[in-house]
């Protein structure tokens, strides 16, 4: 078990010799050597005998051989802190049960019987087995040792609590794993022998995904394979592991189009118990069912090896807000546009008929996304795009590139265009406040003279008052015109990268829960799927430009001087930190460790990662006061910082525990 809460699980489907427990035990032993680094190894239903032994289950010889095979595996597990779960028929008080045996370090920990027996179509389990209902003996004797037995067993090692159910148990209206999860199990195991028929694999996958999500747990499933008897059916060797509604790993199986095989197959992944613990704590309704548990559960301890240096066997998304699969990304972008458009349309309906909608259009990413959403909303609801009034407000930092992009995009979208040069208003503000912008005495200057002087200032010059006055005057101009659509995104809210009562404020903000890394993809997606070639070209140019508020003067050759990412760090890092801090509740140590394992768009050394993470936490805590009064806007994903919904935090909270 990894110190950051990762438990490695393998679900394996071995080659089976039907009716030959000794040979099956040898196959399992061989695989255990292969999966020596796994904390938990799960095998299919009745894996010691073969699920298809049929009336041979009535033979004492097979039952005795199965128990001998079980002891063979118990002995082979000695010296290894690893939970091994195998399927075995067990005779108890004159009845035969289809069971899962849990083994750890040379010890048989307990045996869990199956509760629901399929007895329809190709399944005839009630012919040989009895369904467990809780009335069974609490212990049975195996090899002269008392062994816990029953449907009330859970297995615990530190934070890992394991519950076990068998095949049909999952397919019932109320799977036993649901009760086990309420009782504390965060890893659920299913030993199965599900036949492979057309369409069944996707149904099976949906069951595993949904149960892992419903239980807020890891769910591992190991299915019997094609070396079972094929007299009437074929078993597909389908193995998979899901975590809270997401399949993290799956094996090959019969019917997946790959070449046929006769050996073993498996799925292995590290599941994240800390993430599951965070999700259970924050979803209060999960605890509400505990009072209705029908039974108490016995917890049996087992040991897992502490493995701090083990390489993580799990995909870490460098852009967790942006799906890597192109089809999934397209679906995500389309859905977000629908949510943004629906939210804005409802707010617009509350306004007087034909009242214009004002947007400050800078030619940057965020205002472009808001403008595109507004244009698509108008098209969708039958309103003319001319109802949108796009206002460009060039200031002392505006470059020709962004201004031209803004003008061209507004023309292409058919919105009403207007330009208001704010520099004169800003100059008057500097003079009224007796402020010297970037150290320049502007008391007797005109706008053009000041502009030329500003361009000559050093590139590393700083002046927050100079920046804030421009941002607030832009908002003053917009607010003086009418209903204003905000443009700031989730990442900027997290970092406080906005001017209070400046670009921080609006009447409605469609970008409020869209992170910067996703904004870029949404802008490109809009160009690729919703507009003609001319608009597509403009949107891609905007998406490829340097991210800047353009509040500092350009360079002498007219290029953008002020790069946001050069000031506060790469947005792909901040969005990575934001996701794992808010969505998963990870500690700074774990977030940094994960970042060190991740392949971002460019390499970052450990010092850069640590420095950017410190910047994130300092800015996140220091800027809650801005988030406390953000405008309304639609939540589009699992992370939101709305003070009215997802995130409530005191504005004067101390970040010391996180920074330390």
UniProtKB/TrEMBL annotation:
The keyword Phosphoprotein does not apply. GO terms for molecular function: ATP binding; glutaminase activity; NAD+ synthase (glutamine-hydrolyzing) activity; NAD+ synthase activity. ATP binds at residues 360-367, 487. One of its GO terms (biological process) is NAD+ biosynthetic process. L-glutamine binds at residues 120, 194, 200. Keywords: ATP-binding, Ligase, NAD, Nucleotide-binding. Pathway: Cofactor biosynthesis; NAD(+) biosynthesis; NAD(+) from deamido-NAD(+) (L-Gln route): step 1/1. One of its GO terms (cellular component) is cytoplasm. Its EC number is 6.3.5.1. In the C-terminal section; belongs to the NAD synthetase family. Catalyzes the ATP-dependent amidation of deamido-NAD to form NAD. Uses L-glutamine as a nitrogen source. HAMAP family: NadE_glutamine_dep. This is Glutamine-dependent NAD(+) synthetase. It comes from Rosistilla oblonga. The lineage of its organism: Bacteria, Pseudomonadati, Planctomycetota, Planctomycetia, Pirellulales.
